[in-house]
Amino acid sequence: MTYFCADGIHLEWPVMRFYPHFYRSTASMIPEKSCAPKRLLILTTFFIFSFVNTYSQDGKALFQAKCGSCHIMGGTSTGPDLHGVVDRWGGDVKHVEAWINSWGKLVKEGDTKAIEVANSTNNVMQDFGGSLPQAELDALIKFITEWKPPVPPPPSTDQGGNGGGGGLIFGIISLIMAIIALILMQVNSNLKKLSDDAEGINRPEPVPFFKNKVYIALFSVLLFVVGGYYTANALIDLGRQKHYQPEQPIFYSHKVHAGVNQISCLYCHGAAMESKHAAIPSVNVCMNCHKTITSYSDTSPKLHREDGSEVNGTREIEKLYSYAGFDPKNAAAWDPSKAKSIPWTKIHNLPDHVYFNHSQHIKAGKVQCQSCHGEITNMDEVYQFSELSMGWCINCHRETKVDFYKVDSAGRATGNKFYSIYEKFHNDMKNGKMDSVTVKDIGGLECQKCHY
Ligand code: HEC
Ligand code: HEC
Ligand code: HEC
Ligand code: HEC
Ligand code: HEC
Ligand code: HEC
């Protein structure tokens, strides 16, 4: 079997020579006689493939499979955070590898560092019994040492600044690859012509690609689509701030409060049940607890800003005291009425022409805070999780079924009584004309419901 095209010079030779498996699997997807598309496909796929390959490490998958049940990078799980672990072991990679491969062996040998680490937690690491090959250890160490805390989402304080950087880079790379492919095809056809001339075969003069109508048409369409996409997005994004995460006057962590300490959202944002706004709690709400919780304990999880720098929780609580005018050494003298409010920066902002009501969604709609605000319990610093675009509201209204009030044949009522007023749907449901009611059906797409 030959992997060459039936004619011409073989540009894919290096691919074929050095990556025969790759070549074979791509080549077999294309009928033998059509050379140009085959060549193009093999070359572009190869470029994309090698690009993707250099950027995704084996180590990550290995880590997830073998260690992920106990370790997470950048946080404590059953096992400790492995970020910077090689440094903690004095930069001795071999020593860390020996630990990973069989920590029990090290401990038995009386290795002091291993004994110290083994005693550092009440949990026990899985002993791999020396079963991990060196290549896997290398990949794991590479992944662990190269891991960096996630880059903070771009704080786009400027209006309209979030033109997905990754997408742009990918677009540029695709464009460069397309140009390379075109040039290669051109070179190829010229070389073919030379070889044809040498063999005395006469073929019609090939049309250069910049005069070729198909290429011109394809290029124009591409330009139109890409240009249109970016222009439209930039326009729609005006005033939007997904991922907006301003620095707050106090490093107040939702992860510590709503996550680790499981304080209910409604303890602080109780207004969300009753009114349009969820509202931010006042200093006095904080002081309900912080009159007595005066420091952030050393044993609680360490706090980090998005840029990785460590936060001193106790210092942050002291900032709260300076707003409250509270002196922990003289707690009895505190006068709550002297408290100054904390100038929190508002993160979520809908334009003035939109009407949005929390209680409608939470009490009547039974929508979870997380559906719109993301996993707040995992966020140290809150950021805007959803786009808050009109499309976002509308999509959810199209898809979400309301917990419609039904009375079954036995007379049992289920669902939310709030909806009992919608006579028509009840009849339709009874007659089997519809089986569920979405927000759209109750008017959730009507302009005036959301716009003043
Ligand atoms: C069953 C849970 C578990 C699994 C699976 C596990 N570990 Fe651990 N690991 C731990 C615990 C717990 C510790 C803390 C030491 C102790 O108490 O034994 C630890 C400690 C470590 C340490 C030393 C940390 C330090 O701060 O000095 C390294 C390095 C490590 N693990 C790497 C790995 C790697 C790599 C894997 C996957 C190949 C892995 N672990 C799989 C639970 C686990
Ligand atoms: C102990 C009080 C407290 C609890 C509990 C709490 N929050 Fe907050 N929340 C705050 C404070 C203070 C702010 C303002 C500072 C900030 O943005 O981080 C805030 C801000 C927010 C914001 C951003 C508001 C904006 O500026 O647009 C959202 C969204 C939010 N909280 C949701 C939640 C959710 C969901 C929960 C439950 C999982 C919760 N909060 C639990 C005190 C609390
Ligand atoms: C259906 C989506 C949705 C749900 C569910 C939702 N929110 Fe919101 N939230 C928003 C929107 C949209 C804003 C921006 C409102 C504005 O700018 O007027 C917002 C703003 C906020 C704010 C900033 C202060 C304010 O009221 O404008 C807080 C705090 C907040 N939400 C907390 C919560 C909590 C706590 C819950 C759950 C009890 C919750 N939200 C459920 C969409 C939602
Ligand atoms: C229901 C009780 C409660 C309320 C209300 C409360 N906290 Fe806390 N706070 C805690 C607990 C518990 C801790 C963790 C203490 C520890 O782990 O040592 C904590 C820790 C902190 C810390 C240090 C960790 C961090 O998040 O940076 C700060 C700062 C803080 N609180 C500020 C506030 C502010 C500001 C408010 C009001 C918006 C508030 N707290 C309301 C219970 C509360
Ligand atoms: C996660 C899903 C979800 C998102 C996102 C969402 N909504 Fe809703 N919305 C609901 C549900 C469920 C109801 C039904 C509650 C009810 O019956 O009033 C509802 C009801 C409403 C209503 C009342 C409709 C009526 O006919 O009574 C308005 C107004 C509304 N939403 C506005 C908005 C706006 C504005 C946004 C975007 C900023 C938004 N919603 C985003 C789920 C959502
Ligand atoms: C479920 C709620 C909802 C409904 C229904 C709705 N809108 Fe909107 N609309 C919004 C939100 C939220 C925004 C703000 C979007 C933003 O800031 O990007 C918006 C923005 C707009 C804008 C400003 C342009 C923009 O993208 O900022 C116009 C114009 C508009 N809506 C027209 C309409 C018309 C016309 C209808 C009826 C066909 C309608 N809307 C129905 C929620 C709604």
Features:
22 helices, 452 residues, mainly alpha, extended, binds heme C, Cytochrome Bc1 Complex, Chain D, domain 2
List strands and helices in order, with pairings:
Blueprint: H1 13-18, H2 20-27, H3 35-55, H4 58-67, H5 85-88, H6 93-101, H7 103-108, H8 112-118, H9 134-146, H10 165-199, H11 213-237, H12 254-260, H13 265-269, H14 271-274, H15 283-290, E1 303-304, E2 310-311, H16 313-324, H17 358-364, H18 369-373, H19 390-399, E3 406-407, E4 413-414, H20 423-430, H21 440-444, H22 447-450
Antiparallel strand pairs: 1-2, 3-4
Helix pairs in contact: 2-3, 3-10, 4-9, 15-16
The structure holds heme C (6 copies).
The site of one heme C has 24 residues, from helix 17, helix 18, helix 19, helix 21 and helix 22.
Describe this structure in words.
There is one protein chain. The chain is mainly alpha-helical. It folds into 5 domains: 13-55, no CATH class; 58-146, Cytochrome Bc1 Complex, Chain D, domain 2, CATH 1.10.760; 165-237, no CATH class; 254-348, no CATH class; 390-450, no CATH class. It has 22 helices and 4 strands. The strands form 2 sheets. A two-stranded antiparallel sheet has the order 1-2. Strands 3-4 form a two-stranded antiparallel ribbon. Helix 2 (20-27) crosses helix 3, helix 4 (58-67) packs across helix 9 and helix 15 crosses helix 16. It is extended, with a radius of gyration of 31 Å. The protein binds heme C (6 copies). The site of one heme C has 23 residues, from helix 4, helix 5, helix 6 and helix 8. One heme C is lined by residues 66-67, 69-71, 78-80, 82, 85, 88, 96, 99-100, 117-118, 120-121, 123-126, 140.
